[in-house]
Amino acid sequence: MAAPAPNVEVEPEVEASNYGEEPDSAYDSEVASYTTSITSAITAYKEENGRRYHAYKEGRYIYPNDEQETERLDIMHKMTEVSLGGRLSLAPIPKNAKRILDVGTGTGIWAIETGMASLRDDRRFMQASSSPNDFQATNTPMLRVPPNVRFEVDDVEDDWAYHQPFDYIHCRMMGNAIKDWPKLHRQAFEHVKPGGWAEFIDLDLTWTSPDGSLREEHAGKRFNNIFIKTCRNAGIEACPGLYLEGWMKDAGFQNVHAEKFVLPVGTWPKDKNLKEVGAWNYLQIMEGLEAFTLALFTREAGYTADEVKVICANIRKEIKDPKMHAMFHLHVAYGQKPESPTAS
Description:
By secondary structure, the protein is an alpha/beta fold. Helix content is 32%, strand content 19%. The chain is built from 8 helices and 9 strands. Helix 2 runs antiparallel to helix 7 (272-300) and helix 5 crosses helix 7.
């Protein structure tokens, strides 16, 4: 079981002004035969309710693909990095690792930063980044991509066809993109080398508070309940973080470690690190409320776009209140493929 997250103390007299409204992967050529290249079919985006969405396997991914969402994803990356103590991963990646797969790369920022770090360490990772349909192909700053990183666009829920295994497989923040999580973990197990590691990082989006300041009647909590229920009705697990450890063990991984981190919504915690995490989380929520809700609520829950925007406005008002101490949790699970089939 994952270790319980620490208790979170609220700092007294947090000022609302602390917030602010405006948030001022390379591998062998064998992949070329089966990965989907970035073609007009992928970049022919669909406009809906003023936001741009993916055309590739349209409707599978409920979040937008536009500049505003790209900015939010990069804020999420920073929030996660701070939560993990400045680290890009927690798994003990082997020093001699040559092949890494980043599953569901988003804007590509994790793959780029990991590739650059490996070059500085002279480890020359063969960095791969694969995604189902969340790759922000037109927004990735390709000039920053190091020579050991290559991007491919494909559907991670299809059967993987890699002929060479990876030393390390990384997957984060894929909630709302994956329908079959056990299959994803089985494929990661199949395609990592014996003795190699896989790491999954994702959320439990259940909003709570350490002091009862978030109550069922609040717009944020009502939204949270409807969001989770609607996702599950649509076959999407909104809180995959809760199950990562079990899925890894079921897939066959050993030496599975799980950790749980608090994600405050705002700078209300007393702890300095949590305060910074909360600031980044506050920014990504303020930036992303419509991204989270517009497609899901209008397609699946019968809301109009105007009704969704009213809900978002009410939530923004609530979380700007320094007396509101909302939070949810980040889960990390990593495990190792046995060195041999007979390893116990």
